[in-house]
């Protein structure tokens, strides 16, 4: 099976978690785009979606799925999103597409986080994939120096702004043995908006992983 076919397979598997007559949270990335295709086949059975990126919102609307502002939603039962790396404990690195902050916000609201990723994303230890850190532009150099102290090599993502108008530092060379602790530590650096570790609120199920739903 090609990687594209594997993405489609996990995207389709996530449909079983979608709750009828409810709003579903939708992340971003190519696997999520495949999920949106499948979601469009049951669009009459859901109320609509909340999107974690402008690109996903546009794609949802193109498929005739109503997009809600997160502030107009009281509760979100399910959030479906991809990952760049995931462990057997369902800790993740996300943000390869740069949507980490909004993804983390929607994930925080959701009762169940369904991760959809092909098996190539499963790792014993997080860190081979460069950890994205979203920073306020004026804090770029300071946060870069702070990441160097933590044994990472930060690289500014070129020609890129997040949906929030910020920058991304992709931090290479980390071996992340305690994901929740590092997540909290990096978030504590002044000027950091969010980092791409999703461990304090990891996934609840993984459609290709150890707890395959
Ligand atoms: C975007 C993300 C994506 O979920 C992650 O990058 C995986 O993307 P893909 O499904 O294209 O491999 O976190 O910010």
Describe the structure.
The protein is an alpha/beta fold and 213 residues long. It contains 6 helices and 12 strands. It has helices at 3-13, 30-40, 54-62, 100-109, 140-149, 179-187, and strands at residues 23-26, 48-51, 76-81, 85-86, 92-93, 110-115, 131-135, 153-156, 167-172, 192-195, 197-198, 205-206. It has a 5-stranded parallel sheet with strand order 2-1-3-6-12. Strands 8-9-7-10 form a 4-stranded antiparallel sheet. Strand 1, helix 2 and strand 2 (48-51) form a beta-alpha-beta unit. The longest helix is centred in the N-terminal third of the chain and has 11 residues, at 3-13. The protein is globular, with a radius of gyration of 17 Å. 48% of the residues are buried.
Helix content: 25-40%
Hetero ligands:
ribulose-5-phosphate
- State the helix count: 6
Mean pLDDT: 96
Termini separation: 20 Å
Count of strand segments: 12
